[in-house]
Amino acid sequence: MPAENLQRPDSVLPVAAIPVPELAEFLGRFGLQLTRVAANAPVPGSFWGAPEAGLTGERPHARPDTPVHSVLHEACHYICMSPQRRRGLAADAGGDTHEENAVCYLQILLSDFVPGVSRERMFADMDAWGYSFRLGSAKAWFQEDAEDAREWLLTYGLIDFTDTPTWRRRDDNTTQPETFHD
């Protein structure tokens, strides 16, 4: 993550700008329990450090200035990771490139279901924060270069063929395809 982005957190949508109880309810659909962190306090489980979201077990952690895209990204790591990794989760979600791409794709899809957020806002915030994609933007990647991420999510039953979330997490009953490696 570019350091200059940490100096301008107002350039992306912060948690404080959306209905937090509804965000918590949304995350609860996946068994996640949003933990609110006081302003300026360290964020437990944050891989990148505050204000980025943290993740420990089934708990995403967020301050008022935590970017919404960061909360969704961490939630999608939880949704996409294997149950074995989920059980030992503490800050570093791990995973491979295929899973990371799937996480980004899913966070874009899920943004349409979070009150106060949208797919277009997610594209803009991902670009502003410094996510990098071969085609130069999150939107271009999503529309033109993310078939592998979509296929990964379909394989694990996390979306259906219309790109609608299934509201499930990856589970032990889904066999891993030969082309994807944990």
Please describe the structure with a list of short key phrases separated by commas or semicolons.
8 helices; disordered C terminus; mainly alpha; 5% strand; 182 residues; three-stranded mixed sheet
Strand arrangement, largest sheet?
1-3-2
Largest sheet, strands/sense/barrel: 3 strands, mixed
Radius of gyration: 15 Å
Extended strand count:
3
Average pLDDT taken over every residue: 85
Q: What fraction strand?
A: under 5%
| Uncertain residue ranges | 1-9, 177-182
Instruction: State the helical fraction.
Output: 40-55%
Q: How far is the N terminus from the C terminus?
A: 23 Å
Give me the number of helical elements.
Answer: 8
Order of helices and strands: HHEEEHHHHHH
Count of folded domains:
1
Decide which structural class fits the backbone.
Answer: mainly alpha
Shape: globular
Describe what is shown at a glance:
The chain is mostly helical. 40% of the residues lie in helices and 5% in strands. It has one domain.
Characterization of the model:
This protein is mostly helical and 182 residues long. It has one domain (12-155). Helix content is 40%, strand content 5%. The protein is built from 8 helices and 3 strands, in the order H-H-E-E-E-H-H-H-H-H-H. Helix 3 crosses helix 5, helix 5 crosses helix 6 and helix 5 crosses helix 8 (147-155). The longest helix is centred in the middle third of the chain and has 15 residues, at 97-111.
